[in-house]
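Changelog-adjacent note: as of this version, every example in the card shows the full chain rather than a window. The one below runs 143 residues end to end.
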Amino acid sequence: MSIVNNRKAHFDYHILEEYVAGVVLSGNEVKSIRQGNVTLLDSFVYLKDGEVWLKNFNIARYKMAHPQSTHDEHRDKKLLLSKKEISRISRSLDDNGITCVPLSVFIKNNRIKIKIGIARGKKNWDKRNSIKERDLKRESERY
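Full-length structure tokens:
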């Protein structure tokens, strides 16, 4: 069950590899995500001390929560991956022009998961080709 998709990531980047990661959250954050109060816009993944972190992943405050138990909306979230996946991601990020972006947030087996992708930025002509292909696909489906 997908909650949020980062459509802009597929437009701005060529996705080379995809990984599914768990995320460390508090109870109020989980309830807010299940309501769909989350944005992936401008978020990215970085490595720090052998751990994978997600930055600019904004989760709105849960409206029904007690005022004293609210969470910090802008804190960095730790992603849960295996050592093998972390080493692959770190080797990929060492290359020039490679970044790691979140692609979607979904629920699997009653747990919040984030799909992240190793990506290379598209050039302007690549983006124009994507727009052209999308328009042609719409036209063919219309008739």
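Structural remarks: Residues 124-142 form the longest helix (19 residues).
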